[in-house]
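Support case: user asked for a sample of complex input and structure output to validate their parser. Sending the pair below.
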Amino acid sequence: MRSPAFRSPWWYTGFGIVITLILLLPLYWVLMGSFMTQRELFSPHFSLWPREFVFQNWANALSRLWPHFTTSAIVSICTSAATLLITAPAAYALVWLKVRGRGALFSFMLTSQMLPAIVFVIPLFVVFSRIDLVNTLPGLILGDMTFTIPFALVMLGAYLREFPYQLVEAAQVDGAGQWRAFFSIVLPVTKTGMITVAIFSFLMPWGDLIFALSLITEAGLQPLTLELYKAMGVYGIDWSFLLPGSLLTALPAGLFVVLASRFIVAGFTRGALH
Amino acid sequence: MKQLEATPERVANVLRGGRPVVPRRKVKWRTGLTPYSFILPIVVFTLLLLVYPVFYSLALSFRDATVDTFVSGDMPFIGAGNYQQTLSSNTFWQALVNTVIFTFSSILFQFTIGFLLALFFQNRFPLKNVLIALLLIPWIAPVLTAANTFKGLFNEVGPVNQIAHWFGIPPVPWLALPGYALVATIVANIWIGFPFNFILLYSGICGIPPEIYEAARIDGATYWRRVGHITLPMLKPVTVAVLMLGTIYTVKVFDLVWIMTGGGPANSSHLLSTYAYQVGFSILNFGQAAAIATVIVVLILSLNLFQFLLQRK
């Protein structure tokens, strides 16, 4: 488009790298800071490189966060699995089969996707404390599902609209029932969409703070985000724990960006635009 | 990547209300009761965990649900008391104004940065996709990571002040000064949100047929003229969608502000969401928190209605 002969594509790459580095500078600071002593981190002089790498920060953060890592993993995996289990058949049926109230359900999901979590947190806390779901992981998973389910349904709906329904018709001729056709044809064909939704439905509860903060008080059940939030205690902030801890929390997201950027980019555009 | 394209038709469909496009063929075996077995779980979930809470919250907003009545369980009906209390609170109005400032400035900068990036990435060059993936990190990473990062950057002895010191600017305790604290959270939110604007605008730009640019170039249009006369008009549907979604996502922000400032100092940086949370879970007045939540719902629904009317014109 605008590539005068004197500008080689590598010129653009160079410029692109510079922009990216500038925009990601805050992350660079966290990464370097996570190896510094608190004294060096907030010394009067700005340092771009630790005088000495304090790996102990990471070791401490890792051992303190490990149990919470497990909790977060359980919650996120369960939320993601339950979300997919509920929304995948529903999205398919809503787009391709004749069900009454289709429009109403889609509109309701779009609307609830727009509501802030606080709208659900307050009533769920009150109701959950009556039926003993506060301070339980199932309670937290149900809470997290109030934002993954609308998101997943809207996003899968967008994916499934492009599903070639003739495939199901063909299977139908061969005598397959709707459910059979769903498992043996719809799911394999829409794999990309399913994986994308699974990733997002994993990352959203992984980063959740508000539901964990409201529904979980017991120390043994606290996910990562909550343990890190607590690191900002009344006695000031323990930065040598908070910085490596924050990066550890971002680890799954970082991994997904590296390994599955294709899915993430696709999910980004789709889930949001439709 | 085919799925990335936001073609004008697709976007137009979304903007018409985003309903799924279902062929109107009447085929017998698509009907009947089997389809309902597909949606039964989501209907049950929606009724129990989405519809019921919203109405429960509405009911709660008319009751005296504080720590005492909550434990005894009677929670008497008090009419519009919670709403009166909310509307007469200075913090509520401050939070409302903050939410507007926060949303408007976040969107303005996120969109500008996102648009300029999208223009740049319109060019083809090596390593482009790697850089795009890297630029998504601020948005994909948990908000907590970004919040802690910027809490550190804006620390009284943190990098922002350290760098300002080079230019002889005296240090500012950003997060401890009313006004400044809100600015710090806005900067952090711009950083979190620019990738979202960028990637949507980028996919929109990718959907513009290159022939149009080619034709304009042959006619001698300069680069910025092409941006102004081709890119911007062709991107209008995507732009509207991005701004709308951006507004909704920004009004939803909670974690970022709660972690960075907790609404302080002196309640000066509250958003409506953090204020509602504080009233509910710090002051333990669930009735009033539900009232604030209801106000937020009404605001978002009217925003939606406004957009709907705007698009019908």
